[in-house]
Amino acid sequence: MLNPNDESVIHSWNQNAQAWIATIENEEIESRKVVTNGAIIDAILSYSPNSILDVGCGEGWLTRELNLRGIEVTGIDGVAVLVENAKAKGGGKFLVLPYEDITTTSFANNRFDAVVCNFSLLGKGSVDNLVNLIPSLLKNNRLLFIQTLHPVTTCNQQPYIDGWRQEFWTGLNSQFPEVTPWYFRKLETWVNLLNSAGFSILECREPIHPQQQKPASIIFVAQYNRIIT
Amino acid sequence: MLNPNDESVIHSWNQNAQAWIATIENEEIESRKVVTNGAIIDAILSYSPNSILDVGCGEGWLTRELNLRGIEVTGIDGVAVLVENAKAKGGGKFLVLPYEDITTTSFANNRFDAVVCNFSLLGKGSVDNLVNLIPSLLKNNRLLFIQTLHPVTTCNQQPYIDGWRQEFWTGLNSQFPEVTPWYFRKLETWVNLLNSAGFSILECREPIHPQQQKPASIIFVAQYNRIIT
User: Fold this and answer.
1) How far is B144 from chain A (nearest CA, A)?
2) Does residue B23 have a pLDDT over 50?
3) What is the mean pLDDT of residues B183-187?
4) Which of A34, B3, B146, B206 is buried most, with the most CB atoms less than 10 Å from its CB?
């Protein structure tokens, strides 16, 4: 593996794009099929946004699902192969847009009721920057949905400290050419990142895997611009 | 053990009061000595409240520590033996006041900048009621500090589901006559309880045990009455 950093995250996704597309098409990640896909859709629908930006949309499954439910959805991703695949499948607007190229004016004429990041916040500095930029992409409901790995079930035997971890993609049918680095954040760090970007946490959901009886993920529902009275 | 419920929590503390006093005086709970006592004091001091209500003060160590730092502190507890011991030690105002006897007018003429619950929210309905009452005890800064067991380190092999658990008090020198029931809450449940009571979570701290490298607790710092703009 390359040194784990924000660049090698992108590098690995470019290398793994075809394997990822096959894995999602074949519904090979059991926790997604059984728990987390439904959980993020339910969370979003319970707030009834009219428009949403799917950040890190990959091959576009969530964009399509939300589009089917009448929401105006745009999916963006930094990996061109994934976005091409999403466009070929249709069912939403898709753009190649790496996180580092998003600016406060990227969607100036077309802001969204909500932004969703579904297991797509894997970097370190790139994620900190992105979360701080998200308010500029929002209007009206000002909602941010983040689904990410749950510390209870991902920390395991390792120290509970922010830092780079590795995804080896074991147990899947497709051959992933690259190990994927991802940056583990403590709950404290997620909460502080959201607060420092001006978000208040409205809700936190912990979808439980029905067999394992452990959280398959954590979902933060946050709202921008509450004012302290 | 009696059936685990809000009444048996109180029953066990009445039975265990002397053992608890000895355990705290001898600093036998290592995680308190090494991590969590300092963590709750640091969290409170970083917000500079002038007055504070220590709910579930026990034999009063935290009340005394905050009093020493110039904060006007009142400690309350439902267990008379613990409060008598706290009064004998001095260093703060102490009252016997069971959670179920707290009302919106209990401190009507003397509300507090902050309330702290340090490992003292062990019941089920009694805790839900208490958290919803706390806003009526607050003025000014409107802060609530809760330190409690961290799900990462307390769930272990058990299902990650809200429910009654048992503390057997093993590994301590004093003989505890009763097993103590306590009600495990998921993070989701804590966050939703705070939000539904009108609190916004300002911060979440996860004090790490220096040897185990795991969270020794979770601290929620919440503020009442933010208004959505």
Assistant:
1) 15
2) yes
3) 95
4) B146
Q: ipTM score here?
A: 0.91
- In angstroms, the separation between the Cα of residue B12 and the nearest Cα of chain A is 29
- Residue found by looking up tokens 């208490």 in the block: B130
- Candidates B219, B67, B223; CA nearest to B135 is B223
Mean pLDDT score of chain B: 94
Q: Residue A156 has what pLDDT? A: 78
Q: Cβ contact (<8 Å) for A218 and B187?
A: yes
Print burial letters for B37-55: b (CB count within 10 Å at least 16), e (below 16): bebbbebbeebebebbbbb
How far is residue B54's CA from residue B66's CA, in Å, rounded to a whole number? 10
Distance of alpha carbon B158 from alpha carbon A156, whole angstroms = 15
- Map out the domains of chain A with their CATH numbers: 6-224 (3.40.50.150)
End-to-end alpha carbon distance in chain B: 50
Q: What is the pLDDT of residue A229?
A: 39
Q: Are B69 and B93 in contact (CB under 8 A)?
A: no
Q: Does A185 touch chain B (CB under 8 A)?
A: no
Nearest CB partner across the interface for A215, out of B160, B208, B214 = B160
Predicted confidence at residue B141, as pLDDT, reads 66
d(CA A62, CA A117): 10
Q: Is the pLDDT of residue A3 over 60?
A: yes
Residue B74 near chain A (CB below 8 Å): no
DSSP A167-183: E--TT-SS--SS-EEEE
B202 at the A interface (CB within 8 A)? yes
Nearest one of A167, A160, A155, A148 to A8, comparing CA atoms: A167
CA angle, residues A199, A82, A41, in degrees to nearest 5:
45
Residue B142 identity: R
DSSP state of B120: -
Nearest to B152 among A160, A200, A206 (CB): A160
Note the pLDDT tens digit of each residue in B105-116: 999 999 999 999
